[in-house]
Design a protein that fits this description.
Layout (H helix, E strand, L loop, with lengths): L2 H24 L5 H22 L9 H36 L1 H36 L3 H38 L7 H26 L3 H22 L4 H27 L3 H30 L7
Helix pairs in contact: 1-2, 3-4, 3-7, 4-5, 4-6, 5-6, 5-9, 6-7, 6-8, 7-8
Amino acid sequence: SRFRAVAKAEMVASVVSNLVGIGTAVAGAGIWSLVWMELTRALIVTVAAFILTGWRPGITMRWRDLADLAAFNVSTWGSWGLGYVQSQMPRLLIGSVLGPNAVGFYALAQRLCDQVSDILMVPAYNVVQAGIARAQDDLANAKRLAAGTLRVTAVLACPLFLGLAALAPILVPAVFGAAWTDAIPVVQLLMLVGIRSSLSTIQAAVIRGMGKPHWEMAGAMVGVLLAAAMISLAVPHGLVAATVAFVLSGFVVFPLEALFVTRLTGLTLLEQTGDMFRAGAAGAMMVAAILAVTPSLAAQLPPVL
């Protein structure tokens, strides 16, 4: 939970690794400059972790500690693995049916959504999981922390993702070029997933913080199977249909994750989602205003403005 120290280590790693990546690219390393950049980043973070924790590797261990950690970590790794499968599976199904161009449009949209989600939610996830773990014996405190974080997440995520969806028809061609206009509806749909995944990230932090990572893994498994089935049925009808199926699969499995949080903290489904609906209603009015004003502004101002 020493987040300031972790942030410093990651910032140093980012600066040095980017210098290495740029330097090797200028020196002619080509695509391998990216490899050297990421290896440098991982090496610096690892060395910093050794220094910050004061831990040194050795051969002394207790099997009881290993078993205790393994029970938690195996489920956590399983959840992460299933999450990766769920994120990559649409590309596989889209590519096998619709071809590489469709995969490119989907990948662009997914990358944008993932980048925004990572910036917004990864710090919140780390803080909430640590906070819930400390408060798991104090149910009232854990409930208050979970409710407060879900509220802040809804207030931040709804206008952010809805705003990006509304501006996608201008932003995508302006930033990536006119050749990517077919990605616009996919970007808009996946931004809806961004709202759901932001809340799901907090729910996952609560579930793991309360010591139930196997519940999260079970939910992830249901999500993967449901997404695979729905996308497989929709993908013959086109890229937009496949994206709609992926979006719907995420919202269908959302109540299951909410049920886990209810069991652990007492927060009802309405308490977990009420702020999302209120912020979403405000965001919808914002979107309506953007869509009404944008056509006249686009005729008078450069696209970026």
